[in-house]
Amino acid sequence: MSTTNPQSDAASAVVDTATTPVARARARRRSKHRRRVANVAGLMAGLVLTGALYSVFSPAQAAPAEGTESAAEAAGRELYDRSCISCHGANLEGVPNRGPSLIGVGEASVYFQVHTGRMPLVRQEADAADKPAVFSDEEIDQLMAYVQANGGGPTLPSGDLRDGDVAEGGELFRLNCASCHNFVGEGGALSSGKAAPSLTDSNDLEIYTAMLTGPENMPVFGDNQLTPEEKRAIVNYVQTIGEQADPGGAGIGRVGPVAEGLVIWVVGIGVLMFGIFWMGSKA
Amino acid sequence: MAATATAPGAPTTRLGKTATEIDDRLIVAGPLRRTLNKVFPDHWSFLLGEIALYSFIIALISGTYLTFFFDASMREVVYDGSYAPLRGVEMSAAYDSALNLSFDVRGGLFMRQVHHWAALLFVASIVVHLLRVFFTGAFRRPRETNWIIGVVMLVLALLMGVTGYTLPDDLLSGTGLRIISAIILSVPVIGTWAHWAVFGGDFVGELIIGRFYIAHVLIIPAILLALIAVHLLLLVKQKHAQFPGPGRTEHNVVGNRLFPTFAAKATGLLFIVFGVVAALGGLVQINPFWLWGPYNPAQVSAASQPDWYILFLDGSTRIFPAWDINLPGDYTIPALFWPTVVVAGAMFTVLALYPVIERKLSGDTASHHLLQRPRDVPVRTSLGMMGLTFYGVLMLSGGNDVFADKFDVSLNAMTWFGRLGVVVLPPIVYAITYRICLGLQMHDREVLEHGIETGVIRRLPHGEFIEVHQPLGPVDDHGHGVLAYGGAPVPKKMNQIGGARRAVRGFFKPIEEPSQVELEQGREGRGLAAADEARELTSSGRPSEGGRPQEPRD
Predict the structure, then answer these.
(1) In a shared domain, residues A80 and A131
(2) N or C: which end of chain A has fewer CB within 10 A?
(3) Can you give the pTM of this predicted structure?
(4) Cβ pair A189:B401 closer than 8 A
(5) Within-domain flag for A63
(6) Which residue of A has its CA nearest to B306?
(7) Does the beta-carbon distance from B293 to A183 stay under 8 Å?
């Protein structure tokens, strides 16, 4: 409301001094000045009005504790300031050579990174290793709310994440994922110490958000590359074969010929050597 | 064996009469008796080749069962079997029938797993058998032919494996097939022609499964069977080589007759091999191709590997630098040519020609029927270890992505380990092996010269402590054993020569009854019993003591 004061002062001054030429000239200058001041005031009023309208109509959470921030966001901000700020910066803008900007990554990315324990990072290296999550589910929700509110980006999916055709999911998985994650999601090595992790311990939401946000070295499979239905089919396939028993006996890691070669040499040849030693000792 | 009963006069029993009638017509009694009386030396390492033979038999039998259900065709079908995650997927009839064979045929999955495990065991036991023959010098004249036949059989076994690996037409085997196609194409000049001959086109195409099938079930097994027959006939004709030892010479074979002892042992081993393969087939899953999915040229999986016996070629390819040779005229020799065709060709050529190479190097052209212990031929042993190291590094590199992933090592580090290791490690292993061989030999000679350490410490009157040594035979004036070094195992512990009084039957090592041994040796005038009076020694056998046997002086 203080912005209206200079306008009212100027108006009263113009009425008093409009007689002499000098006064007129001064008045002209004043009226020019007045117009300029009026423009500024109008702009300021418009901005304030827009801000007020925005704060009324914007989808902010209920019970604004400090102006526009929800309780969850505030808690998230606190967690962020404690655990993330040193690498991702005070305004999610990132710190050169430490951490990327979080503007636009969205809550999906926060969920994947924090829920798999990749963030907070232990140290800078080729890959962020997954480990037991540092934050509780509630804290992860708060961090998600904070980053989503301040940076925006992809949001978490809802509904049944396995709602897709398993055979189609298999085809899509072999086409898009197997080249790094292996046929069955056992994971595999990438260059220079990087690795595509095993999917055996991942939950549905982690797999989905990983596709959505492309963490670490993984490409982003946005909704234009793989539709939400296709993502759900892939999640369904990965989880189905992950839970499926091995009909042939011990799965030996499901990594194929390397493990099989190890078994035939250690178990097969080992047992038979034992056998022929034993036969050799029976004269 | 009534057929060989040769009682004087006419046989009286019905069985005997039948046998005589048969012999009258076929004249089999003589050869049969000679065969059944064949003597096989008694050493565990001579059973290794048998393991290969038996696993081949298992693979033949189980494979025959599989052919009843397998459809070697690349016709496109849509899967509609029991395995839900593939239902509705387009695939070749080969993959479809392999899936049905695994899920809808009774015992099919078990038989397929038995077949695959038997195949892996077949190659593995061939390799172990080959190592035994190599390191003991069993390939020397007159057995060079059998060595070369053995190497050819090894190569055929690898081809057998490769063609079998390809048949299910899943994503893994299809990837392998694509690599085979690339290897054939990489051969200069004849590559494209050879590719056309094998695949019938520019690409892998649709003929190949049928062709590989015939090669796998008919052509290669037939050649292998014929070669096995020749291998065994030569073995019988040339007689078995044996390790040196008491009573064993270049002109005899000491061991058990084919019938009944050796036949019983061989049958026992057959059942053991059957048991091990069946246990693996029933308990450990192998090549679960329903997880791999049908082959699709657009798809590939991380950690796509061949079976272990081809892993060394995969490894050599992985570590070989990308050195394409671009010749004028738009002609390229791809880098792939060197680590696959050239390396494999060189390895098997050297292996096959090794008897000739050794003959040239050592100038030893005599016939040998006594084997050598690896320590007694340090150069050959070290060369063999060198070759094994080379092969081992290649094999490790073939699985380098799996090792990198499982042990958290950088894949680049693994690649460079392979590149450097394949050059640096073999010479190091050569030097170490050479020293170990000499050391083992020296120790044998030392025991022959000074006797076995008894562990008994004596204090001499002037205060010196000595350990009493037990000579293995008569000693000379200096107290040194007079037994010559014969390349046979030397006992190194007292209870190996009956020091434990009572015979202890070991699980792995037969410990002969001392009384039996001594009786025999006393009769033959050699060994410990023959020099009884010289055995009660208390000296350390050193020349400083005059080396003479002394009575205890304490």
Answers:
(1) yes
(2) N
(3) 0.83
(4) yes
(5) no
(6) A257
(7) yes
